[in-house]
Amino acid sequence: MATPSEKHERQDRILAEILELALDLARSSQARALAAEDAAEAAPHGLTFQRAARSVRQTLALEAKFERDRKTAERADHDVAERAKASRAERRKAQVKLAVERCVWSEADGDEAEKLLDGLDDILESDTLAGTFAGDDAIEVHVARVCAELGVDTPETLAARRVEAPSASSPMAADTAPEPQVQDPQVWRSSG
Fold it and tell me: What angle do CA 181, 182, 184 make, to 5 degrees?
């Protein structure tokens, strides 16, 4: 199956050939009409010239229409590609924002967290204007860079800290864990 480019080339070749044939016919008809000795002899050649000239004009108009249609299609394809690129960048920006917000809230609260989040918004806006999220860098790279700019730990650092912290199942944690408070159902009944 022919590609769109091959189809366009074929159309252009056919139109060019039709244009040349129509021009040749118009020229020869004009020459015969001029060479005719009377109007009756010139009339059919004049009519042929008129039809050939009309064919030339229509062929030229069709070529121009095809060219306009191709440019319109190219612009539409370009617009679709640009919208897809912008949409991808916005998704990537949202992913970075969510990951960094989690890091901020893991380390700070209150006014400090709000300051960091304002800084995050400024960084993301600057990166958006610079086209940073349109590239192919991994989301983790952006998250690490933004966290470094804000001075907060990355998700990997936070995860490593959680692993290092004693868990409830470890022997050390069991010694320090508070006893669960269980109330006796008998106490509930007697107090009410």
Answer: 140
Instruction: Give me the phi and psi of 151, to 5 degrees please.
Output: 80, 30
Nearest Cα to 49, choosing from 68, 22, 71, 16?
Answer: 22
Q: What tokens appear for 37 in the block?
A: 């000795």
Q: Helix, strand, coil proportions of the chain in percent (round to 5)?
A: 85, 0, 15
Query: Which pTM was predicted?
Result: 0.56
55, 23 in Cβ contact below 8 A?
Answer: no
DSSP tally for the chain: helices H, then strands E: 7, 0
- Rounded Cα distance between 189 and 77, Å, is 75
Six token digits for residue 80:
């679709």
The per-residue pLDDT for range 2-57, each reduced to its tens digit, is 898 899 999 999 999 999 999 999 999 999 999 999 999 999 999 999 999 999 99
